[in-house]
Amino acid sequence: MMNVTLFQQKEWFPSLVLDKLNSTLVDFQEKHNQIERSNQDGIRHLKAGVVVLLHYQNHCGYAFQLIKRSANVAQAGDISCPGGMLEISTDHMLEHILLKTDMVRFVNDKSLRRFPGTDEQTAFLIRLFLMNALREAWEEIGLSPLNVGFLGALPSYSLTLFSRTIFPVVALVKEPYTPCLSDEVEKMLDIPISSFFEPSNYAMLEVCVDPKNSDSSASWHTPCLVLPDGNGADDVLWGATFNILTNFLKIIASDAFSVPSPRRSVQKILNRNYAGRPR
After folding, report:
1. pTM exceeds cut of 0.90
2. HSE of 51, CA atoms in CB hemisphere, 13 A
3. Which residues pair with 18 in a beta bridge?
4. What is the full per-residue pLDDT of the chain (279 aa) written as tens digits?
């Protein structure tokens, strides 16, 4: 079991994350090429960049800075990392600007022009999805790309309900800032990393397709993290974001972290528009 006091070490923990992620193989090139081939065959498969944001809080150490989707989007109520669909021309331009200006750097102040031990195409794709995710973070929560230090990339994650693959990157929020939420975001959440090491926070989520809005009734079960929202209800972290964050913790903990067996259950009902086309 990982020592949770590590997350309270403000200066040392980012260096640990940087070292762990720099030694982790990412599949960005393989997955990107696979998607490109499937799209040539007429299969519309989307690519999205998200940023796992870490920031330090004096009372609990490092936390994940996440967003809760508003009623204005199909996945209303879901908790996710800031991010969204790749916009080819815009994000290519931002990647080019990044190379020219070094506007975003590694947390240790090294340039992103070179990734030791990484081939050139993979380095390009990491920068591309980093700028994709940071553009979305600026639009969704008002986080300036100049206020982050890059920590590394995580393996891609393909969704089952959508023809979509997520390319996650990890960054440190350097200074406190005042969020400016778009109409797609209901609120921001700070979930301490230590919360993932409390077995009582876990539950088994029964995900149901609303039979009133579907031709057939279907359900499945998946682990989730349940935390009080401060207003008498709960926030439920599940799905892609849950898996990306727990995979991050497994990498940081060198596989000493595992999701505990939940002792309770909760339910979520998906409406017919849940898997709708992203905005």
Report:
1. yes
2. 32
3. none
4. 667 788 889 999 999 999 999 999 999 999 999 999 988 877 788 999 999 999 999 989 999 999 999 999 888 899 999 999 999 999 999 999 999 999 999 999 999 998 988 999 999 999 999 999 999 999 999 999 999 999 999 999 998 767 899 999 999 999 999 999 999 999 999 999 999 999 999 999 999 876 665 455 578 899 999 999 988 999 999 999 999 999 999 999 988 899 999 999 999 888 777 766 554
Q: Please compute Rg for the chain using Cα positions.
A: 18
Q: Tokens for 213, please give them.
A: 């809005």
State how far the Cα of 61 lies from the Cα of 4, in Å rounded to an integer.
10
The Cα 70–Cα 182 span in angstroms is: 9
Domains by residue range for the chain, with CATH: 4-198+238-255 (3.90.79.10)
3-state SS record for 112-152: CCCCCCCCHHHHHHHHHHHHHHHHHHHHHHCCCHHHEEEEE
SS3 39: helix
Cα gap 54→105, rounded to integer Å: 15
